[in-house]
Design goal:
With 274 residues, the protein is an all-alpha fold. It has two domains: 132 residues, no CATH class; 130 residues, no CATH class. 89% of the residues lie in helices and 0% in strands. It is built from nine helices and no strands.
Amino acid sequence: MFAKLLKMEFRSTWNVLGILCLSLVGAGLLGGLATRYLEGASAPKQWLEILCVLVITAAVLFFVVCGAAALIVQIVRFYRSRFTDEGYLTFTLPVTTHQILLSSFITSAVNLIAIGAVAVVSFVLMGLCVVPDFEVLREGIHVLWQEFPELWARFTQADVLQAFGLLLVNAIVAFSNELILIMLAVTIGSLVAKKHKILAAVAFYYILHVVDLTFTGVSMVKLAESPDSLLGLLAIVNLILAVVGYILMYFLVDKKLNLKARTEALLQERGGHS
């Protein structure tokens, strides 16, 4: 049943996220073609030059807008599927509260990572459009291929590999902590506010974020023994915050919101109307 729940969550968002992905690719191509025109034209017309600059600026800004839009889609989906009438019906499914929360976390994480990957690909496409001659690109790839064994040997040195591993772990844990923080803020906002729940969630997010940063800063100052230990300590602190945030969110959803009772009342009300 958990797999079906995940599938349902992905289906509910990928129509919008698919449009965002295609839009990102289109923005990258348009921005790259506009840059190529400015680079290649010997004497471009003034209105075309202004138009190209506007297209490039809009393409770059669109990347930011798409990232924000993807996050908003996930927040709205989490709110609607957990704290509205749709959420009450979700809790009638034969799944646990952990499974419901984890399905939201996993789908949000995968969708946001996918949007980020598409954004990177779109930037690469933009860069490829700017390349004046693909022969130059081919030679660059050839040189990189020749230097790859030496670069790989340097990368796999113990200290470099350890630093990269710590950076990767920090990125994963920090991303997870931030996502759980957002979900927790939506949960608290839905619990506390009778109206304007989304605005309440935004306010609680900023409060939780300040607490998060304060705890992280104090922990780093008090516990860091040397600069070399900062990355490892930061990962541990973020992991603790993520676990605490998830436990608190689970407690609020499972104990305080009493969604199952409200679901039964909703079903009885609908049955009475029918």
